[in-house]
């Protein structure tokens, strides 16, 4: 009545009309409700007459009225309850049937896989690339591969499946899929990509954005199957690599500075049940395909790759993805928790062929060793040997519980079609032969094989039939669930619902309005569809219970904060949460990552605390050992875990589970370029320690090298997909002992010499306690040398390591020498210019020395300057014209002509001084006796000289040639 009078008090006609209509409507509805079903039927006419009465009252209006009716408090109807219980019974019966079908399907699938073999080997031939000719590998049919050997000989290999070069990713995955399905049935599984480097292992596993590989497809299939299976699963994702025999977590952010703590080592442990556990490996709970894919891409970016002769983005490690699945409400599964490993093995390579050296060689050797260990293990398993050599490599240790009995193993051997790769192809195929079920000498007869194939086909058909039935039942259950939802939400019986939905058939279907409410991206609420004056106030809302009913009906664990859009978009899969995830536990052991992203983390805390009541909480499972460390981080981040609010969910069995949203984990990488696209692969590795420019003693140097070694695997860690700018910034971090270098730019001999010179060099002004400056009057003609503690002698400066020609001049200068002078006397750049001018001007030695003295005053001793000068002149013996003249001569002629060389402009010194110079140099060689810095100096000069001559075509002039002898003669 209040409403009525308020409405009538309105002056506007329209509102009066609406109010009148509403009044009439409510009255009629009340009467209808009182007069039971018949009255409800009359409602339609009543509303239609009202619509006729006021033509501007549209179907939307009618629908709004329907909404109100639906949300009116409904007096307990027994009919309702009967409907509900009937539907529930039906659903239960159908679920039971599905479960029965699941058991049947599981059994059939297992029989099928047993028939196929628990260890299966596929072979995939890479397509020819541009410029490659047809090679010796021919895929005869779907199970035979022909290899053309020398002398017209051929060999046929038989595999469970052969994929020719034209095979698609779809085709490959269809063969892999049964194994993935068996994972949901509780079996452990391993899928390997094996083969020579550059044959397409990563292509098969990772794929491209256009044709995704096995890993993304597996993740998708797992989630799809999980939804279909009618059970709730907890899925966790981990990713690691085995690089040079070390395990590295690919989901943990890398420390950016040396002061950042290193993540704890990954340790392989065996639990009492014989299962393998990797201590400290991060395991992130994922609730849908997209989250898992993001983590996968993140891991791919951190993987170690490098450019090799065979592949520009060669994987230098074994990349291993672990997806663990736990299901608490399916006792018929083989085990409660099981896992699948997806392994992109490092490429096998013949180091002789790849000509790898240094780290590439070590990587190649480590990969080959572990591959051979893997071959041994699978071979032993096939032969059912009593001893399985799991312990021979980290790879087989990690996979121990996923390779044996009750596990499915799939090996995809990749071969190259190239002629030049024949040897590697034979090696790969022999490896495949070794691990496959059907061994030479035990080949099945054609009859047995055809019988087996028929049986497999039969099983396959049965499975497909069951799949269809399941789908049909699932659709039925879905319909019933929808009906049930409507019942509980509206309180109307099924018949009444039908009536009402019929009423609103002029506008959008009634269901749509509610669906829109549930699908958060259309944020329209039922309220917004009402005429404004009919919308409930805050007080009236609580009375009608409209919102409450809507929320509860649509999503039992919906947050009160109404963040519908996010949920509706992301949650497609029932995920269990861990009730024991309480605030005792914390977030991350990667303190460095937390530190680096502290701000982000704190920001996220707020979001997290809101989200905790939602169903889509993601979990990071950490090992117990790090609880204390995690706790501190957790407290720092201010995150609190909330126990699961959904009572139907079972308690978590992981004691050491902490709660963190996967999104937050990904946020730790927010500074990295987008991880949403296909992971770009680049060639950055931390390859070599870059020495600092300061002068160090050999002791200091050793200490630094040792400390660098302590950085362990993180020296080599990839910081992929970073912009050049970021890399440079990283290089400039003070105190950083290691830095990144491009693999395709190895340090040159010159770099190494320059580095060695710098590290050996001790200027007179920088001589430390252990070193004394001696003036060797008698032997070295006034040369100032450094007497090192170990008895070796060093000149005050190491000499140049090459000659350089100035653009505007016609002379060769030893520029590093000039730099050395600059370093030792600590002169400014302007003085430097003067040095070069004076030192190489056509003046005599005395002039030069006096000029130099003039520049440096007391800082540099005359003898020191003289020493520099003499050396520079010795190196600058040959001018450009002479070089050109000698380009026509033989080495012998050059050797003979060297003494006749006219002194260059910088060698205008008198006979006595020339003699002194020669004496100095000769004595220098004698005294150092081919060791120490003088010897290195001599070698460098020889190298410089030889380089120059080699450049002119005198290739037979080696390093042994005594350049100084040539001078004396
Ligand atoms: N089936 C295929 N279809 C199209 N391209 C392929 C196929 N197989 C391989 N490739 C291409 O060959 C190149 C090398 O492949 P990939 O990097 O996957 O080799 P790999 O075996 O993983 O090498 P490595 O062991 O050195 O990491 C890539 O450019 C890849 O796209």
UniProtKB/TrEMBL annotation:
Under InterPro entries, the record lists:
Kinesin-like_fam, Kinesin_motor_dom, Kinesin_motor_dom_sf, P-loop_NTPase
Q: Which residues bind ATP?
A: 195-202
Where does the record place the Kinesin motor domain? 118-438
Spans traversing the lipid bilayer: none
Biological processes, Gene Ontology terms? microtubule-based movement
Q: Name one GO cellular component term.
A: microtubule
Q: Segment Disordered: which positions?
A: 545-571, 633-655
Coiled-coil annotation: which residues? 84-118, 442-497
Determine if Protein transport is one of this entry's keywords: no
**Organism (species):** Durio zibethinus
UniProt GO MF annotations: ATP binding; microtubule binding; microtubule motor activity
Any single Pfam family the record assigns to this protein:
Kinesin
Record key words, sorted: ATP-binding, Coiled coil, Microtubule, Motor protein, Nucleotide-binding
Q: Output this protein's name.
A: Kinesin-like protein KIN-14T isoform X1
> So what family is this one in?
Belongs to the TRAFAC class myosin-kinesin ATPase superfamily. Kinesin family. KIN-14 subfamily.
């Amino acid at each position: 009545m209040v409403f009525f009078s308020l409405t009538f008090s309105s002056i506007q006609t329209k509102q009066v009309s609406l109010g009148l209509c509403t009044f009439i409507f409510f009255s009629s509805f009340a009467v209808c409700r009182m007069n039971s079903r018949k009255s409800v039927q009359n409602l339609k006419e009543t509303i239609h007459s009202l619509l006729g009465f006021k033509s501007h009252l549209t179907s939307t209006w009618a629908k709004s009225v329907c909404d109100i009716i639906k949300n009116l408090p409904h007096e307990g109807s027994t009919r309702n309850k009967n409907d509900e219980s009937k539907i529930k019974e039906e659903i239960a019966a159908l679920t039971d049937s599905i479960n029965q079908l699941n058991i049947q399907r599981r059994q059939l699938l297992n029989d099928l896989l047993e028939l196929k073999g628990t260890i299966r080997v596929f072979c995939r031939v890479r397509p020819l690339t541009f410029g490659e000719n047809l090679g010796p590998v021919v895929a005869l049919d779907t199970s035979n591969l022909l290899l053309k050997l020398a002398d017209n000989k051929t060999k046929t290999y038989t595999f469970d499946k052969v994929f020719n070069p034209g095979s698609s990713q779809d085709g490959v995955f269809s063969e892999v899929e049964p194994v993935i399905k068996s994972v949901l049935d509780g079996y452990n599984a391993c899928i390997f990509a094996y083969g020579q480097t550059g044959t397409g292992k990563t292509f098969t596993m990772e794929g491209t954005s256009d044709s995704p590989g096995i890993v993304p497809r597996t993740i998708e299939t797992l989630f799809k199957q999980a939804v279909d299976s009618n059970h709730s699963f907890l899925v966790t994702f981990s990713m690691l690599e085995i690089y040079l025999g070390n395990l590295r977590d690919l989901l943990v952010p890398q420390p950016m500075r040396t002061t950042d703590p290193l993540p704890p080592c990954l340790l392989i442990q065996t639990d009492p049940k014989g299962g393998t556990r990797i201590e400290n490996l991060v395991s992130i709970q994922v609730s849908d395909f997209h989250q898992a894919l993001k983590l996968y891409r993140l891991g791919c970016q951190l993987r170690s790759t490098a450019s090799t002769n065979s592949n520009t983005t060669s994987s230098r490690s074994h990349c291993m993805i672990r997806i663990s699945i736990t299901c608490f409400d399916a006792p018929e599964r083989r085990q409660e928790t099981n896992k699948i490993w997806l392994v992109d093995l490092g490429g096998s390579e013949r180091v002789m062929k790849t000509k790898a050296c240094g780290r590439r060689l070590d990587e190649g050797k480590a990969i080959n060793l572990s591959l051979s260990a893997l071959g041994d293990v699978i071979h032993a398993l096939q032969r059912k040997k009593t001893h399985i050599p799991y312990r021979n490599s980290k790879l087989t240790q990690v996979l121990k519980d996923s390779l044996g009995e009750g596990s499915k193993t799939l090996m995809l051997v990749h071969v190259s079609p190239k002629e030049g790769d024949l040897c590697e192809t034979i090696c790969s195929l022999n490896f495949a032969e070794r691990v496959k079920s059907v061994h030479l000498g035990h080949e099945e007869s054609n009859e047995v094989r055809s019988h087996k194939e028929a049986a497999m086909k039969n099983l396959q058909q049965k499975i497909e039939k069951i799949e269809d039935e399941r789908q049909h039942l699932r659709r039925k259950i879905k319909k019933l669930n929808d009906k049930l939802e409507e019942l509980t939400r509206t309180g109307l019986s099924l018949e009444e619902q039908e009536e009402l939905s019929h009423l609103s058939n002029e506008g959008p279907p009634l269901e749509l309005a509610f669906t829109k409410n549930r699908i958060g991206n259309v944020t329209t609420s039922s309220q917004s569809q009402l005429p404004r004056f009919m919308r409930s106030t805050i007080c009236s809302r609580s009375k009608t219970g409209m919102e409450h009913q809507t929320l509860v009906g649509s999503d039992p664990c919906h947050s009160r904060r109404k963040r519908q859009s996010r949920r509706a978009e992301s949650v497609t899969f029932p995920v269990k949460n861990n009730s024991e995830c309480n605030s005792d536990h914390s977030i991350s052991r990667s303190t460095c990552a937390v530190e680096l992203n502290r701000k982000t983390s704190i920001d996220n805390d707020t979001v997290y605390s809101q989200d905790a009541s939602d169903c889509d909480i993601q979990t990071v499972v950490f090992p117990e050992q790090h609880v204390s460390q995690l706790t501190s981080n957790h407290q720092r981040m201010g995150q609190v875990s909330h126990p699961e609010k959904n009572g139907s969910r079972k308690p978590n069995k992981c004691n050491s589970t902490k709660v963190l949203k996967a999104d937050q984990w990904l946020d730790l990488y927010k500074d990295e370029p987008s991880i949403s696209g296909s992971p770009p692969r680049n060639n950055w590795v931390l390859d070599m320690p870059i020495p600092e420019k300061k002068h160090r003693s050999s002791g200091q140097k050793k200490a630094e090298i040792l400390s660098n070694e302590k950085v362990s695997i993180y020296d080599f860690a990839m910081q992929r997909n970073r912009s050049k700018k970021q890399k440079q910034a990283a290089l400039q971090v003070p105190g950083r002992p290691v830095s990144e270098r491009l693999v395709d730019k190895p340090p040159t001999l010159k770099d190494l010499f320059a580095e060695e010179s710098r590290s050996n060099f001790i200027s007179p002004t920088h001589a430390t306690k252990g070193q004394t400056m001696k003036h060797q009057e008698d032997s070295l003609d006034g040369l100032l040398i450094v007497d090192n503690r170990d008895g070796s002698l060093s000149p005050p400066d190491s000499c140049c390591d090459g000659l350089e020609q100035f653009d505007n001049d016609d002379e060769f200068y030893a520029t590093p020498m000039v730099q050395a002078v600059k370093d030792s006397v600590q002169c400014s750049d302007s003085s430097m210019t003067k040095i070069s001018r004076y030192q190489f001007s056509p003046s005599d030695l005395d002039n030069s020395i006096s000029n130099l003295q003039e520049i440096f005053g007391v800082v540099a001793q005359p003898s020191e300057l003289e020493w520099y000068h003499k050396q520079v002149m010795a190196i600058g013996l040959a001018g450009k014209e002479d070089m050109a003249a000698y380009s026509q001569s033989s080495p012998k002629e050059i050797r003979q002509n060297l003494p006749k060389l006219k002194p260059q402009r910088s060698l205008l010194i008198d006979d006595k001084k020339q003699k002194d110079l020669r004496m100095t140099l000769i004595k220098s060689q004698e005294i150092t006796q081919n060791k120490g810095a003088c010897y290195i100096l001599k070698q460098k000069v020889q190298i410089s000289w030889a380089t120059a001559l080699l450049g002119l075509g005198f290739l037979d002039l080696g390093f042994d040639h005594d350049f100084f002898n040539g001078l004396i003669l």
